């Protein structure tokens, strides 16, 4: 079905299509019988798919990466498509509109996207209330989907004050998400990637860890890293995870590299983060390096260029405990979730 729709959808602006598709999914899931149709077509449920990672029980290891559901609007709908966990965000303390449009570009020859969204979101107060309402619903009780909160800083916040933005998001979301992701690796907020350096990053992570208990409960904190780091920088990441005692790493975010693209013309020259198939090999290499260097001492969520069952299996073989989809989900459709889960069952 999706193979018939995709050529039509790809004729229109990617961001407008995103909103049209998500609006359609919400409509489907809110009409009588709609949620049942979604689950019947796409959902794969089997106890053998369950995974316990950083103290949380995932009903399956295939998740939705941050960026697709920035504002926590689609958790129910994504769970009905078969995702075992949904990562909302990136969320910032204050609402922000993001970068000027157009800010998302398809590269069909490469099965890739370039985006420079710029952390457009409704702000942490609104998103926290939205997730709280979902968690109180009967849908959440039935779906048992794990919810992650991906947090960042506002564009106007200078790097020297960045820790305060991460703290504000952490405190607001603490009661409504199951785990946190510290995003310092997006290329679309000026200067953000400088926070991946050891000193500022340890400051952010240690500060969050000091606050990471409330009524006897703590939340797993993960770090999302860029694929463009050198081996020496990845060595630093291993040390940072071990020194700060955070729960693990998400590898990887989008890349600023344009090496090897088949796309010609203006699209490949657009500023922003590249995702999709060109990232498949590099993200798997980063996972393998971190897993080997750390001797498997912390979990890794693998993301980047998963367009097939084999891509997901390769990341798990390299050392990932869980995987996430975004661009592959757009190019391959929701059937990819079930195909990966079926492959894992085999």
Binned strand content:
15-25%
The outline comes out as: globular
- Weakly predicted, low-confidence segments: none
CATH superfamily name?
Answer: Aldolase class I
Largest sheet: 8 strands, parallel, barrel
Radius of gyration: 19 Å
Number of domains: 1
Helical content, roughly?
40-55%
Q: What is the CATH fold-level name? A: TIM Barrel
Terminal CA distance: 25 Å
What is the count of helical runs? 13
Could you explain how this protein is built, in words?
With 346 residues, the protein is of the alpha/beta class. It has a single domain, classed as TIM Barrel (Alpha-Beta Barrel), CATH 3.20.20.70. It has 13 helices and 13 strands. It has helices at residues 2-9, 14-30, 34-42, 75-81, 124-135, 138-143, 162-173, 198-210, 231-244, 280-293, 309-318, 327-332, 335-345, and strands at residues 51-53, 56-58, 62-64, 85-91, 104-107, 112-115, 146-151, 179-183, 221-225, 248-251, 273-276, 300-303, 322-325. Strands 3-4-7-8-9-10-12-13 form an eight-stranded parallel β-barrel, surrounded by six helices. The chain has a three-stranded antiparallel sheet with strand order 5-6-11. The protein has a two-stranded antiparallel ribbon with strand order 1-2. The longest helix has 17 residues, at 14-30. InterPro entries: Aldolase_TIM, DHO_dehydrogenase, Dihydroorotate_DH_1_2, Dihydroorotate_DH_2, Dihydroorotate_DH_cat, Dihydroorotate_DH_CS. It catalyses: (S)-dihydroorotate + a quinone = orotate + a quinol. Its cofactor is FMN.
């Amino acid at each position: 079905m999706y193979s018939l729709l995709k050529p039509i959808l790809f004729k229109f602006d990617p961001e407008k299509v995103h909103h049209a598709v998500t609006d359609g999914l919400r409509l489907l899931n809110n009409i009588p019988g709609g949620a049942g149709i979604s689950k019947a077509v796409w959902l794969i449920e089997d106890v053998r798919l369950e995974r316990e990672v950083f103290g949380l029980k995932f009903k399956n290891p295939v998740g939705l990466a941050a960026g697709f559901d920035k504002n926590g609007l689609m958790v129910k709908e994504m769970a009905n498509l078969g995702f075992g966990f949904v990562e909302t965000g990136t969320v910032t303390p204050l609402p922000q509109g993001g970068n000027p449009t157009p800010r998302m570009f398809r590269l069909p020859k490469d099965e890739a996207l370039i985006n420079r969204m710029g952390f457009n979101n409704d702000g942490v107060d609104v998103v926290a209330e939205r997730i709280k309402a979902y968690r109180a619903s009967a849908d959440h009780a039935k779906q048992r989907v794990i919810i992650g909160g991906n947090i960042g800083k506002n564009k106007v916040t200078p790097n020297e004050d960045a820790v305060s933005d991460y703290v504000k998001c952490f405190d607001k979301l603490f009661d409504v998400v199951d785990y946190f992701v510290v995003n310092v690796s997006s290329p679309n907020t000026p200067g953000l990637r400088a926070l991946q350096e050891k000193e500022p990053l340890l400051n952010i992570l240690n500060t969050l860890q000091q606050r990471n208990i409330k009524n006897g409960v703590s939340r797993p904190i993960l770090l999302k890293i860029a694929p463009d780091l050198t081996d020496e920088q990845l060595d630093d990441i291993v040390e940072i995870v071990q020194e700060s005692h955070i729960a693990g790493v998400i590898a990887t975010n989008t890349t600023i590299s344009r090496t090897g693209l088949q796309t010609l013309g203006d699209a490949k020259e657009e500023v922003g983060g590249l995702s999709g198939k060109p990232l498949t090999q590099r993200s798997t290499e980063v996972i393998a390096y971190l897993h080997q260097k750390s001797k498997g001492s912390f979990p890794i969520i693998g993301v980047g260029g998963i367009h097939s069952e084999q891509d997901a299996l390769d990341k798990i073989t390299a050392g990932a405990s869980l995987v996430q989809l975004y661009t592959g989900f757009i190019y391959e459709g929701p059937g990819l979730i079930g195909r990966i889960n079926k492959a894992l069952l085999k």
